[in-house]
Specification:
Layout lengths: L1 H24 L3 E7 L18 H8 L2 E3 L2 E2 L5 H10 L30 H6 L4 E7 L17 E5 L31 E2 L2 E2 L6 H15 L5 E6 L11 H4 L8 H26 L6 E7 L5 H4 L15 H4 L3 E4 L8 E3 L3 E2 L1 H10 L16 H4 L10 E6 L4 E6 L2 E6 L5 E4 L13 H15 L13 H7 L10
Parallel strand pairs: 1-8, 1-9, 2-11, 3-12, 4-5, 4-8
Antiparallel strand pairs: 2-10, 5-6, 6-7, 9-10, 13-14, 14-15, 15-16
Helix pairs in contact: 2-7, 3-10, 5-7
Bound molecules: calcium ion (CA).
Length: 468
Amino acid sequence: MKIQALNFLVFLFIASCTLHAQEINKSPNLIIILADDLGYADVGFNGCTDIPTPSIDKLAESGVRFTNGYVSYCVCGPSRAGLLTGRYQDRFGFSRNPLFAPNDPEMGLPLSEETLADALGKAGYKSLAIGKWHMGAHETLHPLKRGFDDFYGFLSGGHRYFPEELTLNDPFEAKSQYDGYKTRLLRNYERVDETEYLTDAFSREAVAYIEKNRNNPFFIYLAYNAPHAPLQATEKYLSRFDHIGEKKRKTYAAMVSAVDDGVGAILAKLDELNLSENTLVVFLSDNGGPENHNASDNGILRGQKGDLYEGGIRVPFVMKWPAQIPHGEVYNNPIISLDIFATIIAQAGQQIPLKNPIDGINLIPFINGEDQGKPHERLFWRKFDAREYAIRQGNEKLFMEDGKENMLFNLASDISEENNLQDEAKEKELTSVFREWYQDMTDPVFMGLRQDKEYSEQHPDRFKRKEE
Ligand code: CA
């Protein structure tokens, strides 16, 4: 009897140790929700009043809101390449928006690069990419060849939203760049018949994946194409905005509202499955709003999508992870989308060997106050074709353009970048630091959207299916 009781105690002890070890080793899930061309001031937590975003705001309230959250480029493709690799995309020549070119293995994310999905796969994560890929349309650049276990979306740089407008069966039926917007959606390598409004379809897929992978660590890269043009919304969302008279802004608002519903559905599913505590959810936009084009609003920030002014690169940016990040925190030091990679890798529960050195920083010690310093001494941006450059160091930002006078701003006192400080010594210092960074960068390795015509002339078989 005594021996039995002892055995039972030993059993209990071992069982509790194992359980404890499992809890400690349980890697956090990661969900990156990327909006496309969303303005800085178009979310409630950044002061938006005409478009309610209750779910995105809830996400912000239950985690940390970054007031100085940046992306590494001012348009879609390069910004995403930075986000997915944790590296300045100029290091590997991804300095332009890739063209839709299904025959071109060079048009997209170079194979030298490791994606976040590649890295997390080494730690046993299951990864799903949803929505806009834009990292190459060639078969060798497909998400499933870049570390993802599953994919639901499209390969081009934008897409039409109504399923009845998706009429092309494969990329080789395209005749021009923007025909890429009309391809039927892909589930992995298969074309599917989607019946829902695209934003709703992408939210549905994210929720289903959470349900399916509730028992193993997962990474969902949910890259909505909303609210990128074309401006298309369903009555369900449009009817919420009778108070907006201007048609363009109204449709834009409806598109943002659909994204907000998606965020709500994801948060609700995490709650329902008791996964919220250990899931890191990040929400951001891939670049600033193109105000003239989609009626977005960057508020007091100067400039818009395509600019290295704040309106092009400072974005709505929040992160939630109840296990590690305090509720309702506001973090003001500059951070960048490259940090997402570094943050999750550092928390994945085991050492993950990385193929390339990364530029991002693990933000957790900074957010929870263990480290009172700044994650980045400096941040850099390069617009290769336009010969425009920017560097931020502390509160100072130098904007440079070949052949023009430099402009130096203090963002703490002049967030709208209106007053050029004309401090020669400071300009000299920052220019020199920038040049040093630039030396490690590579020239673009593919032609981009601006070279669409030239590219098509050089590649007359751009959309012709290659014979086996
Ligand atoms: Ca974009």
